[in-house]
Design brief:
The chain is about 50% helix and about 15% strand. A hairpin with a 2-residue loop joins strand 2 and strand 3. It has about 400 residues and is an alpha+beta fold.
Length: about 400
């Protein structure tokens, strides 16, 4: 692994930071969160037109830039710093890789160029709270998480005119606003029970979507209800959907880990800046040794999380290297973000607890991401189980 950034990676990160500084400041962020979609469409257009960010990791034949996944993952550190609400995670990290991996030539040609240029947003709809399970981050991706033939989840049945879906998925990232839904549904009954992925247009008849109140407002979520909705099967019936979801899971974990590292770094910076200005007993609070020790501990934890996230970003582009790395990096990064945000709130004093201050948004990002992709102890336990860590320890004893 080369720890240095390439010239292209450095330029992407620099340009993205400048753009987000201009277009996603604190006031812009608040305004975006209050819109029906929960993000600023103008910012999304700028990310697509100026940086090609939605298609950064997509192949050139489908309108993408053709960069390795590593470049997109590293760019996530900058979006995390700004807590920028955008469809990037849902569209380019959760949905697009599945279309690329499983879709037919016609589906790829028809959808991926529109995703690459930012004109089409997408979302992966799985029943809540099964996203981490579906992506094989906290356990095996098999099982009946998509519905299992029983009440709940989403069911699929074949008819003369194609597939029809019925059921519900909640807590879907950007599910209320995405132009395309990639829906995980249970099909085949008990005899041939399996999970398939389907494409559903955002304006499909029988589709009802509402925005949900989320713990983390910078990650807009929606409830998706499918009332006998016509759907198109993604790829072929014989496709190994659990394997595709598991393969996408490590990419998702590395991306979210880098976002968490960026958010933790910015939370720490804001706290240090404030402690240089606030005075007590005639001295800046930041000059007290006890405060410095606390900040030093946070700094060390953030730097350790950054190293893990960078390694996970590199591993996403290496054949056979990414197994278990993403989940472990994500656990480390979420721990660091939660610690940095909690210390920031406490050291800001009373103002840190107010709705008007941005400090609480970083804490909500840490808690919200752990609810969606964790919890941390299960991320680590699953990675240890895959590595047969405890079995090896018993044998060596």
């Amino acid at each position: 692994m080369d720890p240095n950034f390439t010239a292209e990676q450095g330029e992407i990160r620099r340009t993205l930071r400048e753009l987000l500084h201009k277009r996603s400041g604190p006031h812009d962020l608040r305004a975006a969160l209050d819109t029906p979609d929960g993000h600023d469409p103008a910012l999304w257009t700028a990310l697509a037109e100026q940086l090609g960010l939605p298609g950064l990791a997509l192949p050139e034949p489908y309108g993408g830039v053709g960069c390795p996944r590593t470049d997109l993952v590293l760019a996530a550190e900058e979006t995390g710093r700004a807590l920028a609400p955008s469809p990037l995670l849902a569209t380019s990290v959760l949905a697009a890789p599945l279309i690329l991996a499983l879709g037919t030539d016609a589906q790829r040609t028809g959808l991926l160029p529109r995703i690459s240029d930012g004109t089409l947003t997408a979302a992966l709809a799985v029943p809540a709270p099964a996203l981490a399970t579906a992506l094989a981050l906290t356990g095996p991706s098999g099982g009946d998480w998509s519905g299992g033939g029983r009440a709940g989840g989403v069911q699929a049945r074949r008819t003369q005119d194609g597939w029809r879906l019925y059921g519900e998925a909640a807590q879907v990232l950007d599910g209320h606003s995405a132009g395309l839904l990639v829906v995980a549904a249970h099909a085949g009954g008990f005899a041939r029970s399996r999970t398939l992925l389907f494409l559903v247009a955002g304006d499909a008849s029988g589709l009802v979507r509402t925005r949900q109140t989320a713990l983390d407002p910078t990650r807009p979520q929606g409830r998706v209800q499918l009332r006998d909705v016509h759907a198109e099967l993604l790829g072929e019936e014989e496709a190994d959907v659990p394997a595709a979801l598991s393969g996408a899971g490590d990419f998702v974990a590395a991306f979210v880990a880098c976002e968490a590292v960026g958010a933790a770094d910015r939370a720490l910076e804001r706290t240090v800046e404030y402690l240089k200005q606030r005075e007590q007993f005639g001295r800046a609070i930041g000059s007290f040794q006890a405060v410095q020790h606390r900040l030093a501990d946070v700094y060390v934890q953030v730097q350790a999380a950054r190293s893990a996230a960078y390694y996970a970003a590199w591993a996403t582009g290496q054949e056979g290297e990414s197994e278990r790395v993403g989940g472990l990096a994500l656990a480390q990064a979420l721990d660091a973000l939660r610690r940095a945000a909690a210390e920031g709130i406490q050291l800001h004093g009373g103002i840190g607890f107010t709705w008007e201050h941005e400090a609480h948004l970083y804490f909500k990002r840490a808690a919200g991401d752990e609810l969606l992709f964790g919890p941390v102890h299960r991320l680590r336990a699953h990675a240890a189980g895959q590595a047969r860590l405890f079995e090896r320890a018993e044998v060596s004893v």
